[in-house]
Specification:
119 residues, mainly beta
Length: 119
């Protein structure tokens, strides 16, 4: 069955770094665009970063450009999110998402991993 399993979250001090991973299985990973979303308590889920199925192009939320980097390894069926210079406002549950713009669109979600930025 389809699985997206995030890992790498945790508690980090402001200014620190974390690298999230999302391991995919049960579908053809290289056919899917991959995304990271995040959701803080009381807020809507927001798109953090997006990468094409080949990894050739990536997009970021404007507020995160320069601090976060999305990448993927299609040989390992894994997408990553490198997060640097973390701020308390980056505290959220981070979700991995796979999307294929077929008819109908296909979309899968991971269970999320908690990132807490606090001193």
């Amino acid at each position: 069955q389809v699985q997206l399993v995030e890992s790498g979250g945790g508690l980090v001090q402001p200014g620190g770094s974390l690298r999230l991973s999302c391991a995919a299985s049960g579908f053809t990973f290289s056919w899917y665009r991959m995304r990271w979303y995040r959701q803080s308590p009381g807020k809507e889920r927001e798109l953090v970063a997006d990468i094409s199925h080949t990894g050739g192009s990536a997009n970021y939320a404007d507020s995160l450009k320069g601090r976060f980097t999305i990448s993927r390894d299609n040989a390992k069926n894994t997408v990553y999110l490198q997060m640097n210079s973390l701020k308390p406002e980056d505290t959220a549950v981070y979700y991995c998402n796979a999307v294929k713009w077929s008819v109908p669109p296909l979309q899968y979600w991971g269970q999320g991993t908690q990132v807490t930025v606090s001193s």
